[in-house]
Structure formats: structure tokens, C-alpha cells
Amino acid sequence: MNFIVAGAIEAVKELYGQEIAENVINIQETRKEFEGQVTIVVFPIVRFSKKSPEETANDIGAFLQQNVAEVEGFNVVKGFLNLSIAESYWIDLFNNTLLRPDFLAVKTRGEKVMVEYSSPNTNKPLHLGHVRNNLLGYSVSELLKADGYDVIKVNLVNDRGIHICKSMLAWQNWGNGETPESSGLKGDHLVGKYYVVFDKEYKKEIETLVAEGQTEDEAKKNAPLIKAAQQMLLQWEQGDAAVVGLWEKMNGWVYAGFDVTYKKLGVDFDKYYYESNTYLLGKDTVEEGLAKGVFFKKEDGSVWIDLTADGLDQKLVLRADGTSVYITQDLGTAQMKYDDFGMDKSIYVVGNEQDYHFKVLFLILEKLGKSWAKGLYHLSYGMVDLPSGKMKSREGTVVDADDLVNEMVETAKQKTEELGKTNDFSEVDKEDLYTTIGLGALKYFLLKVEPKKRLLFDPAESIDFQGNTGPFIQYTHARIKSLLSRANYQFAVADYNHIKLTPTELEMVMLLTKYPNEISEAAKAYSPAFIANYLYEVAKLFNKFYHETPPIIKEEDAALKLHRLNICKIAADVIKSGMGILGIKVPERM
RNA sequence: GCCUCCAUAGCUCAGCUGGAUAGAGCACCGGUUUUCUAAACCGUAGGUCACAGGUUCGAAUCCUGUUGGGGGUACCA
Fold first, then answer.
1. Interatomic CA–C1' length for residue A523 and nucleotide B52, angstroms
2. In A68-106, which residue ranges form alpha helices assigned H by DSSP?
């Protein structure tokens, strides 16, 4: 639409003798109820024309009609100048963008971006909150790839700490040597089970102590179990063979379990970092900060940074006893990741409960003068809540990731069988299809919502398969594929001499042309939701087109038939590509 | 207390840097299949965009305040 902007600027210059900036020309698509395809909002121009909005619009409209070949006509409604663009312009657009083989090709930028996501604790299985994180992280990675970045997907596994000791201790005390093999439980679920056991027993101890007269806070500190867990953590840090051995064994179970879940969700990583290797990092950075005068030491030996001038607080970066806190590790880990990859940008996919932490982290790195600090970004997303409130692994009030996926696949199976369209599928193909559809529904459900918004999930209400859903878009793709194969479609550019686009076809062309732009907008905002909503529009419009167009296969006008099949083909390509960005597969049949 | 995010139809969500009468889906009601897949299409109904001010030719969108909700503000991670 650049030629319209240019034309309008020219018009203002010729008509009113004024040089105006590009952003004065405000262009939008014409609303359906009016004639035309492109609208200029003339209000901003009025102060240059010194005429009423209507007069200004008429002046500019007349100028454009006369001087810009593509502008065939115009009408003015209040301060809106609606332009009718020549049919041939749209046909050319169709041929020169959509039908080009490089329409969906990625243009590399030669910039590296790291996306860190998932980052689970190894003491419990993944739940719906983690699912949102994983899908977001994976999808944002795909989105950035589509926008031309080289992407490194990283998982920083939180494999050490008191929480793991809790599971280990409970297993030692009450596990009777239970293993994934002996119990038939998935490793992460087995370990998670003992995390819950710990919490239950711990609470019992607190109750007893409170009954004996201690305050709740005292009891929490004095309970034998928590002391034992702390002791275990200390032993782990000292390299106690028995503790480390148990830790390795139980972590191994968890990893095996996570692998299954990751595979099922379709997410993967280029690089794993383990906190057991990184938790001591960051002390060099603290030294560096002290030397540069960015940090200061208090009398007790603890190290701090004063961020009050930036509207934040004083923040501890190293304990008095010289041990690390969370942010110490993150400072060190950030440096290590940069040393490893030298990326231009680094995205942390982490929940919004850590907004403050990342604000501080990035600010500190900037103050330390790290050139790469400006490329850091916290992709903050809202928690997934249940109607009953927050999910808590300790208390077992979570929607388990594996259960949820299985339920979705089961639901997909039921719905598909009810429709009876897969009777001639092989068993393997059926299972495949149910998984594709079930996961499609789940992924789309989670990704269509703006990341930063919190999400309410009601397990009692199942995720839809109709309307603005993954399966609807998958269905649209399958429908097109079926049509193309029945038509024995072969790609070729149609002869457009006598073809006129219908209004819906015109809409399709305009919508499909927007796809590359949609990707870069979504990438800029790190928001797969843009893509999801865009694809829904494509699918919806396609179904309208499909419904109102007479059977294409029976069309006798060869050029018209080819033209319509081309629209179908591009719609299918865009859907497949976009769904790929969301990590959703699209079936050929369903 | 302070910081921060959120509030749009009964429910779940769109609404880009301010632009025309605020849009979808679900649910509800009604219609469409001797034509390429009805997981579809078409229609009816449903709104004081939390509230109150302000800026502007124009505000769901920007600013201020109020209310309600989430999160944070640990020598936890």
C-alpha cells in the first residue's frame, strides 16, 4: 500500500503546498459496509489542508484517481476517504506475492537468539502450568525462526536444592525401595509422589509441635523432617557418596519421565544446562561488581546492590557466609550462556511471578556494563489457575500434564469416531490422527491467549473442538487437501484475462498476503497468539469461500478453476506453516 | 505500605502504533446437505468496554484517580 501513501503525500504537496511526514497518512482496510478496499483517514491531514475533512477527502480522492493508476474511484464518508483499487492490482498482487515460490521462504537475518524455557524442577512431574511454558517457549522459538533468526533452545534444569532433598528423604523413609519398574509409575510421577508424602508427614510433625506449645513458625523450622532435608542438602554439597548416588538415581527416573512428556508435547532443546553445575557460578561476577563499585559490601560481609535510584530496592547478591542466592547464579549463568553462544538476544520464558527478579537481573547486568544485557528479555506469562485457585504440587491440586494430554487424545478419539470419517484408516493412522487432533486442541487453547494474560482452566469443562479451536483449523486444512487431491491439482499460474475476483476471493487475497507481515509482528511481540488468531481468520474466511463457491472440481472454465484451486492451495500452505509455528500438526484427512 | 500486571457479551477470548455503528467462538434460539468433508456455513438475540474525571475533531485504546482481582516486595528458588 506504499503507493497510496506516496500518492497522498504527493497530493498534499500539490494541492496545499505542504510537505508532510509519512505517519500523517493513516491507512486502513475499508470496512465491509462501504465501497472500496482501502481507506485514508483524513482528519490528521486537515491541519495542512485548512479545509473541512470532507473537502480535504474529496480533493485528495480526486487527485489520486487522476494521478495514481490503481485508484479507480473513491467515495467520502465523513472524514474517511474510501478508495476503490483496480481489479488488476489485486490480481498482480496475487501473482507476484502469493504465487511466488519464495512466498513462505525464510529470509535469514544472521542473528542468534537463545530461548530458555521449560526449566523444570526435578522433584515432581509437569503440570498444566509447565505445559503453557513449554508450548510458549517452543512456539516462540519457531516464530523467531520463521522471522529469520537462528534459534538456540535451552533448558536450564533445576536439579538440585531443598525441594529435591524432600522427595529423596521421603522415598528413603517410606519408599520401601519402590522404583518405576516395580511400581509401574512413570519416573517423574514416582518422585512427585514422595514429594507429596514429605509434605504430608512434615505437616503432621508441625501439628505435633504446635500442640506441644511451639508457635507455627518455630514448628516449621524445628520439625525433624525439614532439618533432615537441610542436612541432606548439606551432605549433597559436600559430595557425600550415598546422597549423591540417591540423587543421581532419582533424577534419572525423573529425566526418563520428562523425556516421555516432552516427546508427547513435541518440544525439544538444543542444549541442557543443569543447575547442579551452575549453582556456584556468579561469584566472579560479584567480584567484578565490587571492583567496579557497582556492588557494595556490608559489615557482615554480605554483598548488595543499591537500586533505589532506579525505583527498586536494595538487593542482596551474595550472602554473608559467601554462598550464592538465586540472583547470583543467574548472573553467572547469563554470562556463561553468552560465553557459550554469543547470541544477540536471549529470551527467558518464565512466569510473571518472577517479573521483579528479571527486572533486577537485567538492570544489574546493564550496570556491570555487559554489552549483551540489552538483548535480554523476560517473556513473562500469566499463571494457569483452576476454578479453585492456584495449582499446588505439594497439595496435589494440579492438572497433570500427562493425564491432560491423554484425556485430550481420548476425547479426540471419541469425537472422531462419532463422526465416522476414519473407518478406512489403519489403526496406526487412527492413533496418529487422534494424537494430532487432541494435541491440536490443547495447544491452540493455550496459545491463542496473549501470553501475559492469566488463564483459567476448568477441568470440568472440556476444551472445545468447534469454533475458534485447533481442530477447526486442522479440519479446514484437511478439507482443502482433500479437494486438491480430488481435483488432481497441479500448480500453475492461471490466465487472468477474463477472471474477476469475487468479494470473498478478494478478501482471501488481502488476508493471505498479510501472512509474512503477521509473522514479523508476532515475532516482535513474542506472541504466538497473533498467529493463532490470524490463522483462525484464514480458516473462517476459507470456509466461507468454500461454501459460497460452486463446486470447483466441476468448474468448466479452466482458468477460473485453476485460479480457485490456487487460492485453496495457498490457504492450505499458510495454515500448515502457521500451525507449524504453534507446534501443531495438520492432518491430510480427518 | 510500595511496585507491577489484569478488568471488553452469561462463559472463553480478539480489537495493531487513538479513527466510522466494539468483533469472534461457546452456550441459547432458528435455518442450510440429490453439488468438492456439516469438526462447516447463514441468521436472531446478547455490551454503560469495572467506575469517575481529563487530553483530543475523535478514546475500549493515552493520562490521573477510585474499586475489584493476580503476582511481587526473603541472606527461598
1. 38
2. 87-93
Closest CA to A451 of A539, A579, A350, A346: A350
Within 446-505 of chain A, which residues have Cβ less than 7 Å from strand B?
448-450, 452-456, 464-469, 471-472, 475, 478-479, 481-483, 486-487
3-class SS at A101? coil
Q: Which residues contact A113 (CB under 8 A, 6 or more apart)?
A: A144, A149, A150, A151, A152, A343, A344, A345, A346, A347
Degrees (nearest 5) of the Cα angle A16, A20, A25? 100
Residue A32 has which C-alpha cell?
465491509
Looking across all nucleic acid strands, the nucleotide with the smallest C1' to CA distance from residue A465 is B39
pLDDT for residue A312 is more than 90? no
Contact status, residue A380 vs residue A451, Cβ threshold 8 Å:
yes
Q: Please report, rounded to whole angstroms, the spatial distance between the CA atom of protein residue A468 and the C1' atom of nucleotide B46.
A: 19
**Which pLDDT band holds residue A202 (cuts at 50, 70, 90)?**
very high
Q: What pLDDT is recorded for position A22? A: 86
Q: Which residue has the higher pLDDT, A429 or A460?
A: A429
Architecture of the structural domain at A2-85: 2-Layer Sandwich (3.30)
List protein-proximal bases of chain B (any atom < 7 A from a CB). 3-7, 11-16, 19-21, 24-27, 35-42, 57-58, 70-77
> Nearest-CA residue to the C1' of B77?
A326
Query: pLDDT tens for residues A378-397?
Result: 999 998 888 777 787 777 77
ipTM above 0.90, yes or no: yes
Q: How confident is the model at residue A184 (pLDDT cuts 50, 70, 90)?
A: very high
Share of chain A above pLDDT 70, in %: 100
Does nucleic acid strand B have an atom less than 7 angstroms from the CB of A530?
A: yes
* Residue ranges, CATH 3.30.1360.70, chain A: 2-85
Q: Give me the sign of the Cα torsion angle A191, A195, A201, A205.
A: positive
CATH superfamily of A401-581: Isoleucyl-tRNA Synthetase; Domain 1 (1.10.730.10)
State what percent of residues in chain A have pLDDT above 90: 79
Task: For residue A324, say whether its CB is under 7 Å from any atom of strand B.
Answer: yes
Sign of the Cα torsion A489, A492, A496, A497 reads: negative
A460 against A442, higher pLDDT: A442
